[in-house]
Amino acid sequence: MSGGDTGTSSTGGLLAARASANDKRKAFRAALASDRIARLPGAFNPLTARLIQEIGFEGVYVSGAVVAADLALPDIGLTTLTEVATRAQQIARVTDLPTLVDADTGFGEPMSAARTVTVLEDAGLAGLHLEDQVNPKRCGHLDGKAVVPTDEAVRRLRAAVAARRDEDFVICARTDAAGIEGIDAAVERAKAYADAGADLIFTEALYTTADFERFRAAVDVPLLANMTEFGKSDLIDADTLESIGYDAVIFPVTTLRLAMFAAEEGLREIAAQGTQKELLYRMQHRSRLYELLQYERYNDFDSGIFNFDLSRNQ
């Protein structure tokens, strides 16, 4: 026997992803260096991440707003590093895709941002993004945001870069300055953040395709676009963003919004009718859920271990 084969069914991709954390980080960096845009839908739980992989996306995103909403909290900086890291680790564990996580402002001062990097590296993430909002932050598509001075944001990023142990771990810098100080100011911040060691720049709440084109023309580093619903940005398709020259795009809250809409509609139907029988056609079938959960592989693995005959040992 070779390759660690013990004669039992393989657990590769079953209990955890086949790919190592470093493999995923290298894959993310390769995607950012390619001429194709990396699409990262948000996963609100691990099973969604598995579905994202099965459908054929290039990565998974963990939104801070979604982690907060899952805890019935608004996205105003109330979640902790522990809460975000725990959920992000659960999601990254089950997929071979690279997982990028929203680390807000780094959960404190520059030293806290440095610790955040080490915790999320240990959690198996492929990268994180840190923003330049005042701490505590608020949702990037709401009015009333405030950003810290550029030099303070640079210190935050330099601390994060200095704490990185795996050089393939991606540190993305998010700036919320476009809607506060204007696009030109956001461009200058992006350049300063790249000089501080950021591998990827995320400019929040640009409005139109022309805004995205303007930013791309002015900044010579990999760029990430945020296509969130009901916000300030036009919903631009991935092919268009790719043609402009963007390297990655996130759809941060889409899956949660779809799921919550369906859950609310279903619960209202049950409240009104006293049964869910008219909703069956809108549900994922038990057999499809079992397929995603890989029930048959678990059964094969279990049988491969517990296949001894006690009578032979008497």
Please write out the topology:
Elements: H1 21-33, E1 38-41, H2 46-55, E2 60-62, H3 64-70, H4 81-93, E3 99-102, H5 110-122, E4 127-131, H6 150-163, E5 170-175, H7 178-181, H8 183-195, E6 200-203, H9 209-218, E7 223-226, H10 238-244, E8 248-251, H11 254-273, H12 286-293, H13 295-305
Parallel strand pairs: 1-8, 2-3, 3-4, 4-5, 5-6, 6-7, 7-8
Helix pairs in contact: 2-4, 5-6
List keywords for this structure.
single chain; 314 residues; alpha/beta; TIM Barrel; 2 domains; eight-stranded parallel beta sheet; 13 helices; 46% helix; 11% strand; disordered N terminus
Tally of discrete structural domains = 2
Mean pLDDT, all residues: 91
Shape: globular
What is the oligomer described by this structure? Answer: single chain
The N- and C-terminal alpha carbons lie at a distance of: 28 Å
What is the fold named in CATH at topology level of the largest domain? Answer: TIM Barrel
Helix content: 40-55%
Proportion of residues in β-strands: 5-15%
Main sheet specs? 8 strands, parallel
Q: Over the alpha carbons, how many angstroms does the gyration radius reach?
A: 22 Å
Organism: Tsukamurella sputi
Cofactor: Mg(2+)
Function: Catalyzes the thermodynamically favored C-C bond cleavage of (2R,3S)-2-methylisocitrate to yield pyruvate and succinate. Involved in the methylcitric acid cycle. Catalyzes the cleavage of 2-methylisocitrate to yield pyruvate and succinate.
Pathway: Organic acid metabolism; propanoate degradation
